[in-house]
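re the bet — no i am not wrong, look at it urself. input seq straight from the record:
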Amino acid sequence: MSARILLIPKPKVLKWTFEESAITEIPKYGFIYTTNEEIARYLKRSAESFAGYTVTKSTNGDEFVQLISNPYLFPKQEGYRLVIDGRITIIAHDDAGLFYGVQTLRQILRQSSHFNGLPNVFIEDYPDFLYRGIMIDVSRDRIPKLEVLKFIIEKLSELKVNQLQLYTEHTFAYRGHEKVWEDYSPLTHEEIIELDAFCKSHFIELVPNQNTFGHLSKWLIHDEYKHLAEAPDGYETPWGGRYEYPFSISPAVPESVKFVEDILREFLPNFSSEQVNIGCDETFDLGQGKSKDLCERYGKGKVYFDFLMKIYNIAKRYKKAVMFWGDIIENHPEFIPQLPKDMIAMVWGYEADHPFDEKCELYSKSGLSFYVCPGTSTWNTFIGRTDNAIENIKNAVYNGYKHGAIGVLTTDWGDNGHPQHLPFSWIGFAFSAALGWNIAGLEVDELLDAVNFHVFETERPLAQFIHRLGQLHNALPYTPNGTPYFYAFVYPDRFSQNEKLKEISYETLENIESELKTMKKELSSLVSEESKLSDVVEQISNNMDFAKLGLQVLRFLRTYGSVENIPEDEWNEFDKEIDRVLEDYRRIWLSCNRKGGLEQSIYKLTRIRRVRKGDKRGLIF
């Protein structure tokens, strides 16, 4: 028998109460004494071993399971003590801590067959960050079905995540604004209320997230809203080239404030959370259009700050705390001390070497509360950037802890059609949850084993497989915020001009393609005996096929210089493969996600066909 107990997050203290061979056998019937009957019922529903037990709020002291919430007995917020020594006792500071103790018990129960019972252990545990959140992008085409969102919430709660944000631009069913969302199967008022209640039952706070300044293209492209745009015909991007659509609302347009008032008044009351994330990031077009004179007169920083304060004052009518992305104000640090102290800055950055140390210090010195916000590194990749995700999350969490961040929010974006399927996000979700709870963390090998056991619920090395896929891009030149095979597939015209293309050898492409082929065979055999994982395997396989297409485009660009020059017979064969991969993509999408947004995602993923015909227009992100 192995003495290893695999838990995620890793507890602060775990020790055997007697010798390692001591176990506790679970009687078929018994009593659960509890101070919170809802949590006891949750344990009965989620753990088959206790399905026949009776929940009681009176005690004789001999109940097999005791679930006790008492702040005098365990003084650390959201903390708990779990003792297995012939019976099971969980004593927690509060109901959240009791719930987390139950989640740890569930993870131990999942391993009981390894011990022929329950190992006799003593655990004391509590979080290093009080707020541990995940943000999921539901505005770049992909909106999971309600049952999938609930599955994600269930798993996140087991990982002791206690906040969830659904990043929203246009995918809420605003009344009177049907033209903006009618093709996207948006979340409705009733669904938000239902999700909010479901989150609360799992001790997760559903924090409303609605961008209110930039990232509003999908509103502003319509004639009814275009007058609000800062730059109705597009703007010059900081990374070169032109974005051909309106992007931000303009501080110079008085109706912009009314627009924000209208959407927040309708959106925010559906959430029980007393917080809101108003976005306000990446306002790249500010000063390139209607606010140009204002920016020249007062400075871009001042114009941004003043409009941010107007949005803040609107949001404060509905919620007690206002979050905003900190990237723009960080370029004008003189305004940080002027921010209201009940704002929360969200300090984000998604590369391994992002200067979190420097950025966190800006807010720490000002006395402003802030979160650190790393990412899963799944977007713009097809199959992930796992090394970058792990280092990025470490960097954020360690420097956040050093400078006094109050929370961690790990983001999972969906740029350029959100083609990456959910399985690729779980390594980042789990690692962030593990470090946010216990900064001592766990080794990568242990993380991957835990993801297999507690997320995918298998002992097969599925997470190791995903991790290896996310390392394949390491053989290619570094491209920030994505992988070369993704950018080549979606933006072949731009990547053909990239100097890094010359650094990619045919031998390197051949080696990666060979590795993908070998791994594809390995994937089918990896879970051949576990039909419950067939959906996960299909999703991984589909993203591998996209990566293979991207590698083929890199080969085309190295050989022919542009997709327009690809010989017709080679193009036709490649085009048929696109159809095959997209057919699988449609089927998988519709099994997990809402129909709305699918055609928009496919439009982005077939841009290469339009480029071949000479149409090199960009995309609405």
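see?? The radius of gyration is 25 Å. told u. also The longest strand covers residues 131-137. so pay up
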